[in-house]
């Protein structure tokens, strides 16, 4: 391979990881070539001559360093292939090998890893049957411990106010500051401050509904499942007033901030394109923001025209009214009707994909456009997937037609019903979820035969 001043750096780093390790020894500025935003902008054009300028290292030394790194990489035996070595390290960890021993092996054999590689690696272990998401959930902290030194090399995010990642980071700053206040507060004030952390549920719900579905579309489902499981460990702790549970919650939240900023966010910046980010931005306002953070307006998508696709011809108003079993309604009338009903509706089609939800003003459970087209199994935390699968199985076979649940939270009585939907020939066409807050209806007594406005 001919290496000269016009050779591009990123292909070399991707094919020969040792190139990056050796450049990092020359200058800490080399770590920017692992930054997702840099890789997608200036990184695509960066030649060795540009690397020389960026690192402030003579071009001759850059070229010599790269050549030696490539030559020594070629002498590495096949069994020490980077990906296979990383896989072996993780599997050894799961077998109980001491993390400190594995850290030394990792540093000697691999040297560095990106959040992108961690996500791909964990997903590969799941796809190949070595692990299931529940195992990774238990061991995710160990994964971070093994790779922590490499992850600590991350650049600061070059995001713009209004970009979803910028909003998440601003919330994390507020969360971290609140945690510091809680830890330093007198015991009488600690619980009151701790209760304010409840807003973190908005932050987590946005991730679950906005970021996770798009990662899944890109083939990464393991890490999102792991994070969702940890969210569900944190949520009940936020309602506690026991000192040991408060301390545990604070630690888990801090660990989650680290995983977001060192693994999740860089991973999304690597995988998502501009269209993905526009979809995230459009949907997140439906869920809301926490801790007084509001998105700025500086970030603008580059390809707006490519994002806003027109509705299929058969769904446009020009088609006129639809002939229903009884009567005729236009698409607009049907849409307004579904939004007016005093219930939350979600429809899952015959392929188990979310096809619709009613966009009511005060939904009981948050929804956003990110879930459209998402497998319904992925819309539930890992601990609930078995229940979802059982309902769908019984609905499809015709064994059951309705599944009902009800919960009580913060004075509300919420009824959740799932209905199997079959056409006139008995073919399964999907499942309809109907949720309704029934506190007022349950409290009614006697009769009211005339309307009384405002009550």
Strand content: 5-15%
Largest sheet: 5 strands, antiparallel
Question: What is the end-to-end distance?
Answer: 80 Å
CATH architecture of the largest domain: Up-down Bundle
Helix content: 40-55%
The CATH class of the largest domain turns out to be Mainly Alpha
Question: Element order, helices and strands?
Answer: HHHHHHHHHHHHHHHHEEHEEHEEEH
Q: Indicate the overall shape.
A: globular
Poorly predicted spans:
76-80, 303-318
Instruction: Estimate nothing, just give the exact number of structural domains.
Output: 4
CATH-level-4 superfamily name of the largest domain? nmb1532 protein domain like
* Mean pLDDT metric: 80
Q: What Rg do the Cα atoms give? A: 26 Å
Write down how many β-strands occur, each being a DSSP E stretch of 2 or more residues.
7
* Count of helical stretches: 19
CATH topology of the largest domain: Four Helix Bundle (Hemerythrin (Met), subunit A)
What would you call the quaternary organization? Answer: single chain
Largest beta sheet: strand ordering: 4-3-7-6-5
Structural class: alpha+beta
Q: In words, what does this structure look like?
A:
By secondary structure, this protein is an alpha+beta fold. The chain has four domains: 9-74, no CATH class; 78-151, no CATH class; 164-305, Four Helix Bundle (Hemerythrin (Met), subunit A) (Up-down Bundle), CATH 1.20.120.520; 341-443, PAS domain (Beta-Lactamase, 2-Layer Sandwich), CATH 3.30.450.20. It contains 19 helices and seven strands. The strands form two sheets. It has a five-stranded antiparallel β-sheet, with helices on one face. A two-stranded antiparallel ribbon has the order 1-2. Strand 6 (412-422) and strand 7 (428-437) form a beta hairpin. Helix 12 runs antiparallel to helix 13 (222-237) and helix 13 (222-237) packs antiparallel against helix 14 (243-271). The longest helix is centred in the middle third of the chain and has 29 residues, at 243-271. The radius of gyration is 26 Å and the shape is globular. It starts with 8 loop residues before the first helix and ends in a 12-residue tail after the last helix.
């Amino acid at each position: 391979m001919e290496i000269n001043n016009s050779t591009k750096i990123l292909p070399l780093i991707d094919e020969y990881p040792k190139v990056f390790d050796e450049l990092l020894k020359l200058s800490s500025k080399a770590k920017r070539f692992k930054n997702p935003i840099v890789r997608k902008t200036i990184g695509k054009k960066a030649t060795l001559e540009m690397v020389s300028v960026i690192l402030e290292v003579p071009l001759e030394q850059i070229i010599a360093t790269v050549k030696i790194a490539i030559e020594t990489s070629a002498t590495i035996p096949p069994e020490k292939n980077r990906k296979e070595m990383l896989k072996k390290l993780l599997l050894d960890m799961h077998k109980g090998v001491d993390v400190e021993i594995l850290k030394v092996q990792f540093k000697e054999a691999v040297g560095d890893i990106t959040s992108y590689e961690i996500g791909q690696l964990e997903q590969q272990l799941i796809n190949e049957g070595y692990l299931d998401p529940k195992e990774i959930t238990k061991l995710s902290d160990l994964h971070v411990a093994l790779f922590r030194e490499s992850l600590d090399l991350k650049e600061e995010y070059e995001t713009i106010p209004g970009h979803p990642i910028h909003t998440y980071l601003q919330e994390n700053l507020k969360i971290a500051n609140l945690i510091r206040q809680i830890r330093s507060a007198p015991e009488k004030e600690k619980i009151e401050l701790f209760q304010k952390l409840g807003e973190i549920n908005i932050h987590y719900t946005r991730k679950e509904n906005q970021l996770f579905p798009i990662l899944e579309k890109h083939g990464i489902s393991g890490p999102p499942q792991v994070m969702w499981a940890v969210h569900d460990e944190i949520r009940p702790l936020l309602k506690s007033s026991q000192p040991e549970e408060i301390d545990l919650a604070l630690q888990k939240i801090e660990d989650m901030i680290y995983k977001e900023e060192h693994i999740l966010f860089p991973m999304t910046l690597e995988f998502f394109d501009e269209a993905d980010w526009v979809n995230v931005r459009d949907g997140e306002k439906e869920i809301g923001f926490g801790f007084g953070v509001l998105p700025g307006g500086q970030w603008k998508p580059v390809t707006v025209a490519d994002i806003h696709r027109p509705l299929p011809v058969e769904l446009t108003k020009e088609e006129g009214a639809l002939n229903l079993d009884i009567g005729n309604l236009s698409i607009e009338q049907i849409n307004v009707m579904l939004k007016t009903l005093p219930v939350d509706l979600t429809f899952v089609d015959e392929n188990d994909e979310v096809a619709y939800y009613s966009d009511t003003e005060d939904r009981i459970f948050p929804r956003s456009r990110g879930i459209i087209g998402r497998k319904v199994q992925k819309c539930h935390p890992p601990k609930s997937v078995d229940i979802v699968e059982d309902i769908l199985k019984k609905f499809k076979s015709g064994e059951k037609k309705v599944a009902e649940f009800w919960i009580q939270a913060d004075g509300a009585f919420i009824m959740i019903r799932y209905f199997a939907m079959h056409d006139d020939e008995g073919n399964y066409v999907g499942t309809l979820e109907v949720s309704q807050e029934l506190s007022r209806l349950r409290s009614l007594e006697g009769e009211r035969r005339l309307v009384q406005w405002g009550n």
